[in-house]
Every structure is written in structure tokens, then in C-alpha cells.
Amino acid sequence: MTVFFHLSQWFWRRIQQQYLKSWFKDDSLRRVFRQVQTLAFFPLDDVIEAFNLIKLNAPKNASSFIFYVEKNYVGSLSKKARFPVELWNLNERVKLDLPRTNNNIESWHSRINKNVNRNLTIKKVIVLFKNEQNSMETDLVMLFSGRKLKAVKSQVERREEELKNLLHDLQLSNLDMFLNGIARMISEKICNGKLKSTAN
């Protein structure tokens, strides 16, 4: 799972609570939703400015959603957000090619849980940890030699590279274009069925 996935889920739940009936009819509401999602990719110092642009162009019927996002995720110059931007922002992670998911941790938990559900003795736990250490050391050798642990689909690599290029090219003079570009990428990903929990 990614921070972005959970952030989008929170936004989508809010939409479901208040706007589900108009969601399917109102393109401007869907556009605001996608643009708010893009805030996760803005540089930390530009999130409030980007949010203010979204807020300025948002239709009146999205005001409750905009207020929710401002109060809980963006904040303002006079009041901090409930969840600080630093907590959910992905800009630097994308630029530095750092993982944006915790899938590796979840797979480790899954491996451990399979063995924990058995009747474990001290001896079995020691063997389990030794096997896990061997696995981790093998992964480290692969990483230090420049290889990837998992093959990534070319479509995912292409989208990641496109996102990274957009972030590097961001200029505040083109803020609206950036908002719409990332929103388009998010929309394409959703339409391809990748983020069903935030989709139509």
C-alpha cells in the first residue's frame, strides 16, 4: 500500500459521505477530487499555493470537500492541518526514486505470519530468524550490486518516469497545467482499474 493510496481513500470516503449522488453527473467535482489528489506530488513549500488555486477554481458544490481537505491535510497560514503535509507528501520520494509503498514490509509480515500460526518452539523461531536473515542478506547483495529485487512492469516504469519528469519540470507559473497533468495521470490509472477504491 502507498501513502497515496490511503490518502486517496480518505478523500474518496469523504466524497462518498457527501457527494455520491452527484459524483457520476458532475465532471467539475471529479476534476476537483483528482486535483486534490495531486497535492501529494507538489513540493512541500508549494502545497498551500496549489491548494489555493484548486480552491479558487472549485465549484460551490465542492466547498464542503475543500474545507475538509484544508482542515485535515493542507492547513492555512494561520492554522496547521490535522495531518501535516510532511506526513503524506511524496514529492521528494518520487524525485529520489525512493519506494512509495510499504509492500516489502507487508510481504515480510506475511512470510512471518505464515510461520507464527504454527506451533512454534524456541528452536523453530531461531531457524525462522536465520532463514529470514539469509533472505535479507541475499536481497542486500542484489541491491548493492545494482540489481532490482523485483521486475517492474514497463507500463509502471513509464508512468513513474513521466511523473518524475513532471515533478522536475514544475514551475509555479504553470501551476494549473501541472495540476491538470498529474490529475490526468491519476485519472488514467484509475480508468485502467489500478485504484478501484478511489474510482468512479
UniProtKB/TrEMBL annotation:
Source organism per UniProt: Brachionus calyciflorus
Source organism, top-level taxon: Eukaryota
This protein's name: MULE transposase domain-containing protein
